[in-house]
Amino acid sequence: MRIKRAILVLCSVLFQTLLCWGQSSSSNPSSQPGLHYKEVTGNEIQGRTTHAGAAFHRIDTAQFADIPANVKQLYTHSAGLYVTFSTNSTQIRAKWCTSPAKTYNNLAAIAFEGMDLYIKREGKWVYAGVGRPGSQDCTESTLVAEMDTEQKECLLYLPLYDSTDKLEIGVDSTADFEFSASPFNHRIPVYGTSIVHGASASRPGLAYPARLSRMSGLDFINLGISGSAKMEPQVADMIAEMQMDALIIDCVPNCSPDNITERTAGFIQKIRSEHPDIPIIAIEGAFFESGNFNRKIAEDMHLRNERFREEIAKLQKSDPHLFLIGAEGLMGDDHEGTIDGTHPNDLGFDRMIQKILPATKNILKGYNLL
Amino acid sequence: MRIKRAILVLCSVLFQTLLCWGQSSSSNPSSQPGLHYKEVTGNEIQGRTTHAGAAFHRIDTAQFADIPANVKQLYTHSAGLYVTFSTNSTQIRAKWCTSPAKTYNNLAAIAFEGMDLYIKREGKWVYAGVGRPGSQDCTESTLVAEMDTEQKECLLYLPLYDSTDKLEIGVDSTADFEFSASPFNHRIPVYGTSIVHGASASRPGLAYPARLSRMSGLDFINLGISGSAKMEPQVADMIAEMQMDALIIDCVPNCSPDNITERTAGFIQKIRSEHPDIPIIAIEGAFFESGNFNRKIAEDMHLRNERFREEIAKLQKSDPHLFLIGAEGLMGDDHEGTIDGTHPNDLGFDRMIQKILPATKNILKGYNLL
Lengths: 370, 370
What we know:
Two copies of one chain form a homodimer. The first copy, chain A, contains nine helices and 14 strands.
């Protein structure tokens, strides 16, 4: 049995190699001549509402001592954080370290703890390459190589579901390199569940707030916290303190029906008290495909959305800046848009965006944010 | 550092739990009362061209001694294999064992070694639930629960990128259960790369041959072999021996330009000699998004498709049953359809299907296969 197992492990290594065919640029050599690395130290990191606290955390966890421990921990994940820079390098590499955590059965490691690079071409952000995580906590990977030497604007997304502890960006030693300001306007946090957090996009740049930003030019900030978007009063206090121009709330799947009835009004009113005139857009939970035949899941999801609709409708009577996007059509109609019945795959995210983006743009135009 | 690491590992376990919110039905209890398990022993396994050889292999590896060892090994993966049955059980569980291999950074474990269940509703196959692999080689998982007791037709897909060594299906001990014949007509092998094999679909039922089958009612048989679809003469001999009503060849990304020039004619002519009248549909390789800025990858992919087009055009002069589907539009036009620049995510697969399915149906209608 031991020999059989050894052969199987050997085969596994062989297949790992085979799976990466055509990807020789993504190998992880321990050194590379003619390269210069720029460390990302703090203020260059975009996609967060503050530059206080640890460089790669989404919030200053020390500032908000009262929020639940799991919420605080989840905000140490680098979901939605990005770095922008311009360079004329022919290659872009990254060295980065994450926590020892490893991915889940419903998330590819590239999304969990990999890097994702876009480059601007003819006014649009275009996929350029990923940084593949290895088996160790620290990885070195080529994101793209063999480019021409024209000056390029680059946008690098950090890992979704792990904390990032260190990041260096490598370019040709002779190339220009300059960190740049965020290319996205205004500040629109998206508070929500694992779906906002990025499960189960295939890579960091495909989490839906990141796609919304590239498609609209607005800065949608990822405040997704897997399994933990329960509208606690302390979290309302935290969000209320943030600088923002609009807010999206997409937390229904994490809240019990009773949570929704008890907390929605207080949560939104607290934030509203600090931001009297901004648009707040609430989104119902997309129907769980795991409820296609499981009647309990279907009924439960139906009840959560019903309760949420009721609460939002009550608030809308005295709040003209509160909007609701309904669940209908968020996952399309072929039931193929999830990896596991709950978390959208990239097809499901694409359908969410097809509904959420035009509805959101329409609302934001009324506030001169577009 | 050890304490920090221990805390991080603990947190990782906590997040694993959180990520699975709403998925309590997918827990893996060691026993479950009121259940009866049916073992899948061999002939019930569909999606392969033969019932000879090991139960869960796609080909009888003993029969084809000459094919390259890595090709042979890859055909032990259960990609595209499925089991169909009818039951009125309120729940469906699975116990299965795979090899010790673990997934790659560009594939979620659910796709690599998980199970994927569909149930027929109003004439259509609808997603019902996944079997989540655990950390061990053998797993027990609830795919769906809390159903009504109407009789249902079920379709269970096996793991894509691992071998399956054992499979049992669990239903209520009082329920009816019967294995059924394949619901799909005719036999259309799809010979190709990791993309055919299933990388990087989010779950087994979303590999593109499986989707084509559910959408057309035809039996597209997965002959994808990651990194190894190189049109060797021995593989042509093997495919030529298979019973089939049509054939799809989607292997360009695994072949060097020289491979293509040297092997395409011989490969197709060998198969044609045994199947003089069937439609053979060749597909160009979808443009690699990793070539968006990497000029070498872009040129290389362009050259491969050009060579393939030339070879197919030459053969078409004397072969009226040979067809070509071009690369244009296979990945859409927003460059978001891959996980890593090479392997489609579910959005990329959806776009491939939008082009391949109507083109294929149109051809197959001419042969009375639809």
